[in-house]
Structures are given as C-alpha cells and as structure tokens.
Amino acid sequence: MVNLDEIFKPIYFKDGQMFWIDTRYIPWEEIWRHTKDYNRVAQAIKDMEIRGAPAIGVAAAFGMALAAIYSNARNIDELLKDLEKAKEVLSKTRPTAVNLFWALDRVMQAALKASESGDVEKVREVVLNEAYAIQREDIEQNVRMGKIGAELIEDGDVILTHCNTGALATAGYGTALGVIRAAWEQGKRIEVIATETRPVAQGARLTVWELVREGIPAKLISDTMVGYLMSKKKISKVFLGADRILLSGHFANKIGTYQIAVLAHYHKVPFYTVAPTSTIDPKRTLDQLVIEERSPEEVRRCPYPYEKIYVTVPSIDVYNPAFDVTPPELVTGIVTEEGVAYPPYWVSLREIMRKKGYQI
C-alpha cells in the first residue's frame, strides 16, 4: 500500500507560497525555489525549472492561486480580471502539453462558479482549494496508473524508458516511471534502461536520479543505442509518457519518442505510453497540434548549469523541436487511471473520456 503522504512531491504550496525543486540542477544539487508571484511561476515553467506535462499543470494551478491570493481586487469583477490576466501569462509558457491548459481552464471555471456568491474571499479560497485538488488527484491517479500498468510487466522484464516521467514530471510518483516503480514495489525483478534524452538530458539527469534513489536496477544509454539493443533482444517492453494524446491515438511526447516507436514496432517490442486522462485532448485533431520549438542553444551547448560549454560550432544553425508525434498504429496500449486503452483508439479513448464525464 502506497502512503500518499510519504510520496516525494516536487511542487507544493505552503504559507502562501509555491515551492518547487529546480530540475535544471539535478543530479548535482537539490535546489528548492519559492515565490508568491505567478509571473515567477510562469518563468519557471518556460525555463524548465518545472517540466513534465502533469507537473506543469499543477504549477499553473498554484500560479492561479497566487494570482487570487495576492490580487488587490476589491470586488469580483476586478478579481476575475486579474485571474484572466494570470491565465493568459501562464498559458503562453509551453504550447504542447495539454495539462497546462486543462488545469488553467479548470481553475478558472471554479473561480467563475464561486464568483456567483459575490464574495471575493470565497473566490480566493475556492481557487486555492481547486489547485490543491489538482495536485492531490494527480498523485492519486499516478498511483492508480502504476498498479494498472504494472500488470503489463512480467518478472525479469527489461524496460526501456525515454525522457523523465517520474515524480519530477508530476505532482508525485510518476506516470510511466510510476508504472515501473509499482512493478518494483510488487517485488518483480526488473531492470530499466534509460535513454540520455538529448538535448537537455532529462533521462540521464532526472530519470537516473529517481531510479537510483529508489534502488531500481538501471542502465543509461545514449539515444542512438536503442536500435542496437532491440536488435540484440535486450529490451522486453517500452514504457514512456505523453504530453498530449489525441482521440485518434496520436500522441506528442519528448523528441525521439517516434523513432523508438518505429524501432519497437520493427522488433516486435510492446510499446506503451502512460498518462492521466487530463493529457487526453478531446477537441484537437492532428493538424491542430502545435509542436514547441525551443532555443537552438539547448542543442549547441551542454545542459544547464553547464550551458557555457559548447558541443559544436557556435554559429551552426539548429533545428530543435521539443516533441514529436507517434501514430496510433505503433502503440500497443495507452495506460490511464481508468484502464488501458487498446486499438482502435478512436473507440477506446472515447469510452475512457466518457467515464470521466466528458460528452464526446
């Protein structure tokens, strides 16, 4: 039985402030930041101090809470205007992860409903409570996904994972790494292979840090080694996360995911993505999906905090999409807190969303 109170939480709210661990410094240092300013939260998301789709959503929700608490509004209209401004600022930080927009919309809807009371303080209280609820639900859903996904893992499996999908990418416990963690807690003898995940090495820095802390056997590889290991039958299954899942089954995830999916399909290695239903986007189609383009300096230089060191000719042009899109025909299953979706995804994902109360 997982004790939710003992789970490591990379983001939390206390004494009118939001606290978060700055993931740019891991594994070298564990530096905690804190603020009362939602603009600082937005900067933390944009600069990837906070990263991972669920974590971004939780941070945005607490950012809205800060906007409500420290607004100088004297009436409902002024407070709602300040919240809309905060929502606009926070929404411009990262364009691909749908959890960000889902959390902002959810908090804003709670504020609008509470505003019918005409009580400014009531709205502030409701906004903060909604942010707390988003944080708590994410942890509970991650633990539930872990148990569901762990059923897909057999004793002796060697599992490949890409980027970071652990506690650091969520409110706690993790998505794909949560599945791996749950299998380990069940006593299954497993080994994890983590990709380095260029250009900012979330796998090498963050995933390995989490696996070592948990005592889960792991090996680190460069992104270019995946095909070789699969050809040698050294990988049993792939589990990784998602930043946005479309009802068609297409999903956006960290750049490099698509090529892993192609290799897994060729080598007949089961390939799963793990994400809460808040990552499923029931409104957009593939042609409406926005892929974030990040700074070319991320590719030209070493990861933060060693970003002054170039790994190439400083003037070289760079292409740096943060995500790619994996088509549904390459996906074995999609693990959610409501169960595992299997092809055809346009049927199974709709059914899962209906369980969550969506009218689709």
**Any idea what the radius of gyration is?**
20 Å
Which CATH-level-2 architecture of the largest domain?
A: 3-Layer(aba) Sandwich
Task: Summarize the helix and strand pattern as letters.
Answer: EEEHHHHHEHEHEHEEEHEEHEEEH
The order of strands across the largest sheet is: 6-5-4-7-10-13-14
Number of domains: 2
GO molecular function: S-methyl-5-thioribose-1-phosphate isomerase activity
Catalytic activity: 5-(methylsulfanyl)-alpha-D-ribose 1-phosphate = 5-(methylsulfanyl)-D-ribulose 1-phosphate
Active site: 243 (proton donor)
Protein name: Putative methylthioribose-1-phosphate isomerase
Please characterize this protein's 3D structure.
- The chain has 11 helices and 14 strands.
- The strands form 3 sheets. The chain has a 7-stranded mixed beta sheet with strand order 6-5-4-7-10-13-14, with helices on both faces. It has a 4-stranded mixed beta sheet with strand order 11-8-9-12, with helices on one face.
- A hairpin with a 2-residue loop joins strand 13 and strand 14.
- It has 360 residues and is an alpha/beta fold.
- It is globular.
- The chain has 2 domains: 4-143, Up-down Bundle (Four Helix Bundle (Hemerythrin (Met), subunit A)), CATH 1.20.120; 147-355, Translation initiation factor eif-2b, domain 2 (Rossmann fold).
- It has helices spanning 38-46, 53-69, 76-91, 98-115, 120-150, 176-185, 202-214, 226-231, 257-267, 297-300, 345-355; strands spanning 11-14, 17-21, 32-35, 158-161, 191-195, 218-221, 237-240, 244-246, 251-254, 271-274, 280-281, 323-326, 333-336, 339-341.
- Helix 5 (120-150) crosses helix 6.
- GO terms for molecular function: S-methyl-5-thioribose-1-phosphate isomerase activity.
- The record marks 163 as: Transition state stabilizer.
- It is an enzyme of class 5 (isomerase).
- InterPro entries: IF-2B-related, IF-M1Pi, IF_2B-like_C, Initiation_fac_2B_a/b/d, M1Pi_N, NagB/RpiA_transferase-like.
- It holds the Pfam family IF-2B.
